[in-house]
């Protein structure tokens, strides 16, 4: 088995996706945090897009060169393929459907980010409406307690970081509720946060770090 080093940022939801996958599959790894506002030169050299996560894969053969992977979906798919078991359904069509939902979650992360960075409540509500429409797609397909039943799969790993950040952001504004009329999504988040793989996927103060970041950049939330 190769050894893995994951280049991370403390609050990044995309990093958390990859960590959940690593934790759910019990894969040993080293985690290195960087400051994205002051990226070290060595990181810029290995990350073509200048983003996290980046996974550095060191082969068993010490004479072989390390390989660098970027983009959370690519990293998670690779980890799933090279480790025992799979976090995807075995049926090709079901697997394709799950991968499509992962892409929807990525798009929803964009809505959640725009909501958190909105210049005022009116703008936040517009982004919240876009987000809720996407979450409604999940609501229609959730089996419970996880997306497809009892076991965690890749849709859970891809979407739970999004749901957490939506909840953390909306704690700062009583006027917002992206989970309104989405009881399955809300229950999914609550069940997911009880999983050890999710608990271990973030630093202990991630919620506070994320909320502090929002307050500093969204003037209408500074007094929350």
List the helices and strands and how they pair.
Elements: E1 3-8, H1 13-24, E2 30-33, H2 41-46, E3 54-58, E4 67-70, H3 72-82, H4 92-116, H5 121-139, H6 154-170, H7 183-192, H8 196-199, H9 206-217
Parallel strand pairs: 1-2
Antiparallel strand pairs: 1-3, 3-4
Helix pairs in contact: 1-3, 1-6, 4-5, 4-6, 6-7
Number of strands: 4
Order of helices and strands: EHEHEEHHHHHHH
**Overall 3D form:** globular
- How large a portion of the residues is in β-strands, by DSSP E? 5-15%
**Global mean pLDDT:** 95
Poorly predicted runs are none
Structural class: alpha+beta
Helix content estimate: 40-55%
Distance between the termini: 48 Å
CATH-assigned fold name of the largest domain: Glutathione S-transferase Yfyf (Class Pi), Chain A, domain 2
Note the main sheet. 4 strands, mixed
Overall structural domain count = 2
CATH architectural designation of the largest domain: Up-down Bundle
């Amino acid at each position: 088995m190769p050894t893995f080093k994951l280049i991370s940022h403390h609050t990044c939801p995309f990093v958390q996706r990859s960590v959940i996958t690593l934790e759910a599959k019990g894969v040993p790894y080293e985690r290195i945090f960087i400051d994205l506002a002051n990226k070290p030169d060595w990181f810029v050299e290995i990350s073509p897009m200048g983003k996290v996560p980046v996974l550095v894969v060191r082969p068993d053969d010490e004479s072989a060169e390390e390989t660098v992977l970027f983009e959370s979906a690519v990293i998670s798919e690779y980890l799933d393929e090279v480790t025992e078991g799979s976090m995807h359904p075995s049926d090709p069509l079901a697997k394709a459907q799950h991968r499509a939902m992962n892409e929807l979650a990525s798009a929803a992360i964009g809505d959640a980010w725009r909501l958190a960075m909105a210049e005022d409540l009116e703008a936040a509500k517009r982004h919240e409406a876009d987000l809720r429409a996407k979450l409604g797609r999940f609501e229609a397909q959730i089996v419970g307690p996880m997306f497809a039943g009892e076991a965690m799969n890749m849709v859970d790993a891809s979407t739970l970081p999004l749901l957490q950040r939506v909840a953390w952001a909306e704690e700062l504004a009583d006027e917002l509720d992206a989970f309104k009329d989405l009881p399955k999504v809300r229950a999914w988040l609550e069940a997911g946060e009880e999983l050890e793989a999710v608990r271990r996927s973030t630093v202990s103060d991630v919620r506070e770090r994320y909320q502090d970041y929002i307050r500093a950049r969204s003037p209408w939330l500074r007094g929350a």
